[in-house]
């Protein structure tokens, strides 16, 4: 039995040529999360991360803030889907850089549409697995934890796999899983209680490490 903490990576570089790296703020969010864990006396018996750069950078920063030394098990099934490939299934033209509120909203409208079709098996984004295969990658991590772990377990991943894990545990529709994904904030914590038979949702998308007024402008979504 134990508690699984699923953490979304810190703010990445949305709109940049290379999204897959933490921004300066994303680094600060992640260090602050580690400090919060240390202040709570929370340590981890097992750590899993995806293999993307922003996952690894987030965990390094959490370790820095938490002053603990636990090597992570790299788990490719916790990697994010390719949002550009998903959008290309419904909008096969180059998008303008989303640098205005309207372009930002347009980007995420297209992403919702593409995700809905991918999850329902209507489209096959180039270079991506089917949604069934993507789901299997996420559930393989959950199954590993149920069968092999106890105590406190940390996963560092992205919004898509975390929302997929929550949707799987709760049995939600694809549309609800997508809305969960769109709500997950950078460095947010989602908690599952687990035993050898099941995972149970305890909290979703919380930011206890950023509750102080000094951190009000550290809360981000992309």
Q: If you average the pLDDT, what whole number results?
A: 95
Structural class: alpha/beta
CATH superfamily of the largest domain: Phosphoglycerate mutase-like
CATH topology of the largest domain: Rossmann fold
Level-2 CATH architecture of the largest domain: 3-Layer(aba) Sandwich
Model regions low in confidence, pLDDT < 50 over at least 5 residues: none
Strand content: 15-25%
Strand order of the largest sheet: 3-2-4-1-5-6
User: SSE string, helix = H, strand = E?
Assistant: EHEHEHHHEHHEE
N/C terminus separation: 33 Å
Pfam family, one: His_Phos_1
GO cellular component, one term: cytoplasm
GO molecular function: phosphatase activity
Organism: Albidiferax ferrireducens (strain ATCC BAA-621 / DSM 15236 / T118)
Can you walk through the features of this model?
One of its GO terms (molecular function) is phosphatase activity. This is Phosphoglycerate mutase. With 222 residues, this protein is α/β, with parallel strands linked by helices. It has two domains: 2-80 and 130-218, Phosphoglycerate mutase-like (Rossmann fold, 3-Layer(aba) Sandwich), CATH 3.40.50.1240; 82-127, no CATH class. Helix content is 43%, strand content 15%. The chain has helices spanning 24-39, 53-66, 83-88, 101-119, 131-148, 159-170, 174-183, and strands at 2-8, 46-49, 73-74, 151-157, 189-194, 199-206. Strands 3-2-4-1-5-6 form a six-stranded mixed sheet. Helix 6 packs across helix 7 (174-183). The longest helix has 19 residues, at 101-119. The two termini are 33 Å apart. The model has no long low-confidence stretch (mean pLDDT 95).
